[in-house]
């Protein structure tokens, strides 16, 4: 991955993290299209992903997910399948 591509991802909201041999660009669910409203307790009371209503449980899982691009391999990873698909869409669009 080139420095130009890394800079482009950082402009989109990705945050670079490096430790030892690991070099990654992390992004959170809200940057990928998650919108939430919360109860006073901090729990999700309403959520949408890219304009579609989703369950509160699903939103909570998305908020806890780790989603990143491994800079060395150029591959995207996420512990949540919905965010993985959204990340792959971004990566495909930026590869063209």
How is this fold's topology laid out?
Elements: H1 3-11, E1 15-19, E2 22-26, E3 34-38, E4 44-49, E5 52-54, H2 56-64, E6 67-70, E7 76-78, H3 81-95
Antiparallel strand pairs: 1-2, 2-6, 3-4, 4-5, 6-7
Architecture overview:
By secondary structure, the protein is of the alpha+beta class. It is built from three helices and seven strands, in the order H-E-E-E-E-E-H-E-E-H. It has helices spanning 3-11, 56-64, 81-95; strands at residues 15-19, 22-26, 34-38, 44-49, 52-54, 67-70, 76-78. Strands 1-2-6-7 form a four-stranded antiparallel sheet, covered by helices on one side. A three-stranded antiparallel sheet has the order 3-4-5, covered by helices on one side. The longest helix is centred in the last third of the chain and has 15 residues, at 81-95. The radius of gyration is 14 Å and the shape is elongated. The mean pLDDT is 95.
Brief description of this entry?
The chain is an alpha+beta fold and 96 residues long.
Report the biggest beta sheet as strand number plus sense, adding barrel if it closes: 4 strands, antiparallel
**What is the terminal separation in angstroms?**
14 Å
Structural class: alpha+beta
The helix/strand series, from N terminus to C terminus, equals: HEEEEEHEEH
Task: Tell me the Rg in angstroms.
Answer: 14 Å
Q: What's the pLDDT, averaged over the residues?
A: 95
- Neighbour order of strands in the largest sheet: 1-2-6-7
Structure summary, number of beta strands: 7
Low-pLDDT sequence parts: none
Q: What coarse outline follows from CA principal-axis ratios?
A: elongated
Please state roughly what percent of the residues sit in beta strands, choosing from under 5%, 5-15%, 15-25%, 25-35%, 35-45% or over 45%.
25-35%
Number of structural units classed as domains: 1
Task: Determine the number of helices (DSSP H or I, runs of at least 4 residues).
Answer: 3
Percent range of helical residues: 25-40%
């Amino acid at each position: 991955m080139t420095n130009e591509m890394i800079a482009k991802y950082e402009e989109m909201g990705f945050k670079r993290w490096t430790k030892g041999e690991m070099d990654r660009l992390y992004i959170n669910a809200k940057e990928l299209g998650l919108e939430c409203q919360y109860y006073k307790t901090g729990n999700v009371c309403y959520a949408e992903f890219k304009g579609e209503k989703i369950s509160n449980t699903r939103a909570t899982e998305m908020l806890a997910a780790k989603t990143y691009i491994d800079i060395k391999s150029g591959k995207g990873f996420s512990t949540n399948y919905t965010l993985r698909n959204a990340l792959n869409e971004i990566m495909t669009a930026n590869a063209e």
